[in-house]
Amino acid sequence: MAWNEPGGDKNDPWKNRGGKEQGPPDLDDVLKNLFGKFGKAGGGGSGKSYTGMGVGLLLVILLVVWALSGFYTIKEAERGVLLRFGENTGILAQPGLSWKMTFIDEVIPVNVQSIRDQGSAGAMLTEDENMVRVEMEMQYRISDPYQWTFSVTDPETSLSQALDSAIRYVVGHTKMDDILTDGRETARQRVREELEGIISAYNIGVTIIDMNFKDARPPQEVKAAFDDAIAAQEDEVRFIREAEAYARELEPKARGQVNRMNEEAQAYKERSILEAQGEVARFEELLPQYIAAPEVTRQRIYIETMEQVFSSTSKIMVDTKGSGNMMYLPLDKIMERQNSQTQAQRDQAKNTLEGLRNSSDAESLLNRVQNNNIRSTTRQGRN
Predict the structure, then answer these.
(1) Whole-model pTM?
(2) CA gap 184, 214 in Å, rounded
(3) Where does the record place Basic and acidic residues bias (predicted)?
């Protein structure tokens, strides 16, 4: 029968010991008995041996806890600044599991790979005494963990103040039109150079990656007027670009026209020289004939010249004798009318011939005409 079953009280280990009932043993009594056994094993059971063993065991436990508490881990993007009694050892803890002496060494992890942002914005006075609101943002990375941790009390606040100071200095030495229009890139570079000069004196331990010019605008009260001015400047630039494009398009055409005119002038020059040389040669040929028969030669030259003149002019015959009425005969009109009639007759005959060729009896008609022509020729030969 088990001690905890009904009727098993006599088997209960906490009862009927020494003729009396008792509860569970006290924890202090258990510890005393345990250390007493250790003391006897060490030789004698005296109080001195008991105290020595307890102190030794306690020291071992504390030593193990101290050793285990020295293990720490540094992440991949971090470096640890190792301090010994609060002084820099010049050693950077690398990523991974490492060990330090607790209460002696201290490791401060610093992220040296992530890119951090720091912005600044505010209303500022420009060189030409105009108010403008500028907003810029800086991207940086920690290059020296120890300087970042101990050079200044609050590195982020110091960096923000340095950025604000650099922006205000550059804006204060720049005109408003340059800040609002095409001078932003120059202002951005100047702010970066000025900021690098400031933080180099503080030894904050950061490296500037980039500087972004996010926004620059005039006060809200005059924003509409400045928008119109900026639009006008953009239109000016656009018109200049269009004019330059038109000039680039027109210049080759003008050069081609100039070259063509030069070539035509050169050809005209050569033609005139050749014509003059031809005229000289012709007069040299006429000179012996003129010497031999001057009157005949003069008359022939006159007739040839008049022929050339009248061939390209209108001709009118005028009767100035007889009655007082002036009679004229427009020969050019008559010749034109006659030529037009002749051309009409030719066209009509051509059309008739084509119609006859297309008709069914065209071949017989042609044969008949040929026979008539042969007969006429034979008769003429006989006569």
Answers:
(1) 0.47
(2) 10
(3) 7-20
CA dihedral angle for residue 219, residue 222, residue 228, residue 229, rounded to 10 degrees: -80
Torsion on CA atoms 68, 73, 79, 84, rounded to nearest 10: -10
Q: Which two tokens stand for residue 271?
A: 């033609």
Single-letter residue type at 372: N
* Distance between CA atoms of residues 36 and 103, nearest Å: 35
Q: How far apart are CA 113 and CA 142, in angstroms?
A: 7
**The pair of three-digit structure tokens given for residue 179, joined into one six-digit string:** 């800040």
What are the DSSP E strand ranges found in the chain? 71-74, 78-84, 87-93, 96-99, 105-111, 116-125, 131-142, 206-217, 316-319, 327-330
The edge-to-edge listing of strands for the beta sheet with 105-111 is 87-93, 78-84, 105-111
pLDDT digits (tens, 9 = 90+) for 249-302: 888 888 999 999 999 999 999 999 998 998 888 888 888 887 888 888 888 888
For residue 364, report the phi and psi dihedrals to the nearest 5 degrees.
Answer: -65, -40
Cα(1)–Cα(8) distance, integer angstroms: 7
Q: Which domains does the chain have, with CATH numbers?
A: 71-110 (no CATH), 115-218 (3.30.479.30)
